[in-house]
Amino acid sequence: MHRLAGIELGGTKTVVVLGQAGRIDERVEFATRDPETTLEEALEVLSGWQGTRALDALGIASFGPIRLEPRATDFGCMLATPKPGWSGAEVRAPFAKELGCPVGLDTDVNGAALGEYRHGAGKGCSSLVYVTIGTGIGGGVLVEGHPVHGSLHPELGHLRLRRARGDGFAGACRFHGDCVEGLLSGPALAARLGCHPGEVPAHDPRWEVIAQDLAELLVHLLLTLAPQRIIVGGGVTHRQRHLLARAIDHVPHLLGGYLEDATPAVLAQRIVLPTLGDDAGPTGALEIAARALAQRPGHAV
């Protein structure tokens, strides 16, 4: 069996795992700090594992925006990001240089999407969207099982939404104010609720406007990408599990009868929480590693 490693490089936490496709054998977690410290710590973990037995491939699932085009001169480098000190950081190169094995790279949300597609809530689907609602908001898109890349990668968190009537919250995104991230991310919710969103009880009426905002995003995704499944993960929906159900209840009204089969019962099967939980990203990183190995001539996974 191939010995695979994965890194889920998040804005807050980094997870390094060892295992095989669909199976995590070892895991190390630590806070994401500055690029040099964080990447060196990850490399130290990987080098320790490689000292026992060579790694066949590494998959990196990173926060972004990050350059994914292999032909680009800045391939594997972080682009302009609000994360202090990370703009321009070389994420892939240090591992490719030191480990001497194939190194695959994708976004953290595409990684989570791959994990759920192969081993979780997306099994049996050919197309899906994974949305994470946490410190920021990201979206991973898979079509026929392959992550969508273009000039960059999908940035669903910066879509603009139709606002709920009477909602005067200005938004918290430093770029766009009231985009999806500016309305629904953890910091945005803390700003509009006046406290950590995990502390607000489910019966608080302020969740209703937030649910409408999330429903607007779901409608955008249903109409533009027509996914077979939308998986909504991240810390916000994990702590406030009622929020997704409330949002789904708003979707048929927002669609206005356009999608006749979009009943609450159907949508509840099509728009779901992740089944892998915190393992979605690390499992996806191992999938990225497996795909990088499979692309190497003479190898198969």
From TrEMBL:
Its EC number is 2.7.1.4. Signal peptide: none annotated. It comes from the Bacteria. SUPFAM superfamilies: Actin-like ATPase domain. It is an enzyme of class 2 (transferase). Its cofactor is Mg(2+). It catalyses: D-fructose + ATP = D-fructose 6-phosphate + ADP + H(+). Pfam families: ROK (PF00480). CDD domains: ASKHA_NBD_ROK_BsFRK-like (cd24067). The keyword Zinc applies. Keywords: Magnesium, Metal-binding, Zinc. PANTHER family: FRUCTOKINASE, TRANSCRIPTIONAL REPRESSOR MPRA. This is fructokinase. It comes from Novosphingobium decolorationis.
